[in-house]
Specification:
The complex is a heterodimer.
Chain A (H helix, E strand, L loop, with lengths): L11 E2 L2 H11 L3 E5 L2 H10 L3 E4 L4 H7 L8 H10 L4 E6 L3 H10 L3 E5 L20 E5 L2 H9 L4 E4 L9 H19 L5 H8 L3 H10 L5 E4 L6 H9 L5 E3 L1 H4 L4 H13 L4 H8 L26
Parallel strand pairs in A: 2-3, 2-9, 3-4, 4-5, 5-6, 6-7, 7-8
Chain B lengths: L4 E5 L5 H10 L3 E5 L2 H4 L4 E4 L4 H10 L3 H9 L4 E4 L1 H6 E5 L11 E6 L10 E7 L2 E10 L4 E5 L4 E6 L8 E7 L2 E4 L10 H16 L1
Parallel strand pairs in B: 1-2, 1-3, 3-4, 4-12, 5-6
Antiparallel strand pairs in B: 6-9, 7-8, 10-11, 11-12
The chains are: A alpha/beta, B alpha/beta.
Chain lengths: 303, 205
């Protein structure tokens, strides 16, 4: 993992520092799923730090079924044209050609996402091969570190996208934080066995044990539907949140989007969260995750 | 002289990295999100982040006007990337409704170096830090398109194709701004330079 400063005086693009540094700039912010230019503008107006361009929000992917793929390049370009904030887009897990296409379109971040149908059940894309940085989902520390080893420059806890239910987001973020805490407590002799158990490279395990955090930015995703949900994830240690279906599947998207932005910044101020939560209209209809069949759990995709 | 207290505007962005860099440069650093917190610091850093989000939140939570008053009263402020945009009197390629704090007589073009795929790092000569080049990390970075007579240019980046260079660091009085992110490197000389500015300002008061 080359986080060491380069000494070259010539400009270099696509370095680990430039990729990870981009995610650092998004911290404390909300990244919103949008399916067209109009929604992208609403998100930007509300104070989103970036938008995620995709054809259908996860709630609709769930409803429609079938294979979910990378979005139409035209749609992604329209969104890039419509807003001045960064634009992200999703590729299928292991579908490095979709990722190549997204890079050629000039998206600012690629989400190798379990919300789309995986293209490879063994391998994720080699993310070091790209100039565009990647964000990947994780349900636990080992998974996060395997993605970072493959070149991910940002991690989001997976949660269960398209449910409007925050329970899985909480489970995954707590899991990652707990495992980091556990590593902190180990003596250096024990880190080798820990790396074996985590199925992650020893160097990364050692780095996490020393830093007490991931070497990249950690956001939360999958199930955030209210300002209080967003603040909860922040208080649990997420450095920012992704909101998918929660905004544009609600009664008043513009108002809810702005409210979630406020609650994400002032995540530790219940008065501001209370004010942000007033009169938002209907939240998206939620799904109880314990009634969700295993095959419909997106978090199980990726390994 | 007592150690200066320097706030980092913590509405959004890479706040933590600036807090670390300021502490390394021997300042007392703390996050600032509210007008009351702003009143308690000697100086402020406006971090990198998304300038449209930062500007919106500053207006919404009543920080923008107190910040403008403090700047007018001479408080030292250092802005990186989005922070540079916030300190510009004039913004190009911003949102139509985008407000800045202002204070530096310059025109800044937002995302001027391009999108993330064009983001880069490069060594760069910085006036006043002459022992070695500063390592500049430019992320969807702005550049300074024009400066007024009172603005001192501290760093320029040679053009990639052609002789035209771009202004990427400036100072006007107690205000300092860079297109790039020294807080993402281990080199805290630019932060130390700012802490020295703050100390000189406090000593003169």
């Amino acid at each position: 993992m080359s986080t060491t400063p380069t000494t070259a005086d010539q400009p270099q693009i696509g370095t680990a520092r430039v990729k990870r540094g981009m995610a650092e700039q998004l911290k404390g912010g909300v990244i919103m799923d949008v399916v067209n230019a109009e929604q992208a503008k609403i998100a930007e107006d509300a104070g989103a730090v970036a938008v995620m361009a995709l054809e259908r929000v996860p709630a609709d992917i769930r409803k429609d079924g079938g294979v979910a793929r990378m979005s139409d390049p035209n749609m992604i370009e329209e969104i890039i044209e419509a807003v001045s904030i960064p634009v992200m887009a999703k590729s299928r897990i292991g579908h490095f050609v979709e990722a190549q296409v997204l890079q050629s379109l000039g998206v600012d971040y690629i989400d190798e996402s379990e919300v789309l149908t995986p293209a490879d059940e063994v391998n994720h894309s080699d993310k070091w091969a790209f100039t565009t940085p990647f964000v990947c989902g994780a349900t636990n520390l080992g998974e996060a570190l395997r993605r970072i080893a493959e070149g991910a420059a940002m991690i989001r806890s997976k949660g269960e996208a398209g449910t409007g239910n925050v329970v899985e987001a909480v489970r995954h973020l707590r899991q990652i934080k707990n495992e980091i805490g556990h590593l902190r407590a180990l003596d250096h002799n024990e880190l080798y066995a820990a790396a074996k158990e985590l199925r992650a490279p020893y160097e990364l395990v050692k780095e996490v044990a020393e830093l007490g955090k991931l070497p990249v930015v950690l956001f939360s995703a999958g199930g955030v539907a209210t300002p209080a949900d967003a603040a909860l994830m922040r208080q649990l240690g997420a450095e920012g949140v992704f909101v998918g279906s929660g905004i544009f599947k609600s009664g008043d998207p513009a108002k809810r989007a702005a409210a979630i932005v406020k609650a994400t910044t002032f995540f530790d101020d219940p008065k501001i969260i209370a004010d942000a939560s007033r009169n938002l209209g209907e939240a998206m209809v939620g799904i109880n995750c314990d009634t969700l069949p295993e095959t419909e759990r997106y978090a199980n995709r990726g390994w | 002289m007592s150690t200066p207290v320097i706030g980092v505007l913590a509405l959004q962005g890479d706040v933590r990295e600036h807090l670390v860099a300021l502490a390394e440069a021997d300042a007392l650093a703390r996050p600032v999100r509210r007008a009351e917190e702003l009143a308690e610091v000697d100086a402020l850093v406006i971090p990198g982040g998304e300038s449209t989000t930062m500007s919106k939140l500053a207006l919404l939570f009543g920080v923008m006007d107190p910040l403008r008053e403090r700047v007018a009263a001479g408080m030292p402020v250092y802005g990186t990337c989005a922070g540079m945009i916030m300190l510009a009197d004039k913004i190009l390629d911003g949102r139509e409704d985008q407000e800045s704090v202002g204070g530096i007589d310059m025109t800044v073009r937002r995302n001027a170096f391009g999108r993330q795929n064009e983001s880069f790092e490069s060594g760069i000569a910085f006036k006043g830090l002459d022992d070695a080049p500063v390592h500049g990390v430019f992320i969807r970075a702005p550049w300074v398109e024009a400066v007024g007579a009172g603005v001192e240019v501290l760093a320029e980046l040679p053009g990639a194709d052609g002789p035209e260079s771009r202004i990427v660091a400036v100072r006007q009085g107690n205000l300092l701004a860079t297109s790039f992110h020294p807080e993402l490197t281990g080199d805290h000389r630019v932060h130390a330079y700012f802490v020295k500015m703050v100390e000189e300002h406090l000593a003169a008061e």
